[in-house]
Fold these 2 entries.
Entry 1:
Amino acid sequence: MGSNLESLSVESFYKSGEMRKHLRLKLIAGKGGLNRLIEDKAVNRPALALIGYFEIFGEKRVQFLGTGEIGYLRSLGKKQEAALIPLFEKAIPCLVFSSECAPLPILKKLAQKYNIPLFRTELKSRDFMAECTLLLETAFAERCTIQGTLLDIKGMGVLLEGKSGIGKSECALALVERGHSLVSDDMTCVRKLNDHQLLGSSPDLNRSYMECRGLGILNVVQLFGIRAFCPDKRIDLIITFVEWEEGMAEERTGLDIPSKTILGLEIPNIQIPVRPGRDLARLVEAAALAQALRGIGYNSAREYNKHLIQIMKGNGL
C-alpha cells in the first residue's frame, strides 16, 4: 500500500537539498510565510489571474511570474497594485520570478504585507518551470518501502525478494563483484514516477552498505569502487527466491512470465528455487538479460516454440 505526500511547506521547497541545489532560489520578501503549504505538484503561471479571471485558478500551487507576466505588469504603471492584490488575497503558497526580470517594488511590498514568500530564481523561465515541475512531481509521488535488494544489472533494475536468510545479499555481493551495481540492500524505497515507471532507491542510512551473514556490514564502494553503487534505478524485473522442495512446480519454458503489482503497476516477476549447487548470481544475470531482450520485442522461449511448431508441421505431426 503506497502513500502520497499531501503537502510540502514553502520552507522545505526553499531549503531542502535537491530543490535548493537545482532551483537556486533567493528569498526577497515574505519570510513570515515560510510555513505556508504547497498542496499541488504543478507550477502555475497566473497570467489570467492578473487580468481578473480566477474561475480555474490553481491557488494551491507555486506561482511563477515569467517575462510575459512581468512585462504586462510593467505596462500597467500605477495600476500594478490593483492587478496584484486579488492574486495575493488568494493566499497562494509563494511567488517566484525569474532572474531575467528586474524585480517590481510592488511585489516586495505586497509579499511583506500578506506574508507570502517572494523568491527570485537564477534560472531562466523555461529552465525553472522544467526543474520545478520535475522536483515537485518527485516530492509528491506515491511511494512505499518494500523488503528486497535492488541492483543495476547491465542497465536493468532487478529487485531480489525472498524470506530472510535465503541468500539475497550473498547473491547481490556476487553480482557486484562481477561488475554490477548495488542500489539498496534488504529495504528498498519505491516511488511511482508515472503510470509506467517505478524508481527504487536506498534509505539514506543504508546507502552503499549491505549486510552479509557471517561477514557483517560491508561498504561496497570501499570494497569495489564507486562503480559498485547506483543511487537509484527504475525497477524492471522482480526475482523471488523460494526454497526448493521436491515435487514443486518449476518454470521450464518461460513462455508466460507472471507479474507482481507494486503501487498499481505490474512488474514481471520470476521465481527461482534455491537449492545447493545453484549459481544464483549467474541465474539472476541471465534473467535480467532475457528481460532486456523481451523489452525490445525478442522472447527466446516464444521463438523456440514457434520454431518447434514449424518443425512439427513440416513433419506432419
Entry 2:
Amino acid sequence: MQYKPISLHYKQKHITMKKQMKQIALPLFLGGLIACSPKTAVNETDLLGNWTEILPPSSSFVQGMTLAKEGKASSIGMATLQYESWQLLSDGQLVLSGKSIGNGQTISFSDTLTILSLQQDTLTLRKGADYQIKYVRQPESAPLVGTDKASTGYTWSDVLQKDIRIFETGQKVLSATDSQATQAGFLVFATDSSKVEVFLPDTKVILDRRVRPDGIAVWNVEDDDTYQVQACADSWIVSRRGRLLYSTHGTDKKIETSFLTAENTEIPVAFYPHEALAEVCLDGQYMLLSQYRTASGYGYKNTILDLRGKGKEATLTRSTDGKTFQLTEKN
C-alpha cells in the first residue's frame, strides 16, 4: 500500500488553522483572567452606595460609610466619626473628609486611603503602610447589615437592659498595642457600677466589680485571667494576662524599649505615662507594674516585681525568690 504525500496546500491550511486557534484562545484565556481578577481601575460610579466594614462574626459593631453622588458622604453606625464628603484621586486613592466628635470638641479630618481592589462588591482599602480595611456593598433595596437600630448605631446593652449608642454612652478606649488601629473599644458601666460591659472590636464580655486587698476597684471574672478593667491615673484600661490592650489614651506617649541583663538576656519594657504603668516581660510572662514616687529616677512595682532605674541603668527585683537583675537599656 502506497502512502501519498500530504499536499503543500493541506499543510498550509493546517498551519493557518493552528494560528487561528491560538489567536482565538489567547483572548479567551486573557478574558478569563480579567473576569476573575480584582478591579483596580476604579471610577466614581463604582464606589457609589452603602459600604459596611467586614468585622468578626462575634462583633457587636456595625460601621461603614455611604458614598453618594456629587462627593457627598455619611457614616454608618459611627456617631463620633461623621463623614461629610469623599473624593477619588487620579492615582487610585480615596479621600474621606468629615468631623471627629468627642471629649467636648469637634475636629475636622481628612483621611487618604489607597484602593487596593474592588471585586464582586468587596472593597479593600489600605491605610498607612500595613493596615487594610475590607468593606462589602449593601444592596440599596435591602436594610443595612443587622437591624435598623444597628445600622443607625444602636446596640443592645445587657448591663443597662436597653438599646444604646455605645459611642455616646460608653467610655471610649483605644488600642494600646497598635497605633494604626482604626477600631476602638467601649466600656459601658451598670447604673450602680457593679458590672461593666466591655465592647471590643472582636468580642464582648461582662465583668464584675471587686475590690483588691490594696483597696483598688477592678472589674474582672473571678478565677479567670481573661480581661480586667480598672482606672489608672487619668485613664481607663483593659488588660489581659498582664498586657495592656486598651486605654483611654491608647499609644499616646508610649515608650517601648528593651533592657539587657548581665547574662545578655533581653527584657522588653513598655512605659505608659498617661496610665502611670510599665509593662514588663520576664521569662515570657507579662506583668503590669504601677508607678510609685522615688527620690530620683523612676520606680514601678506590683506584688512580684519592682523596677527602679535612672538613665540607662535599672534594677529589677523579683520578690518570689529575691533575685535581682542588673539592667542596661539596649541601644
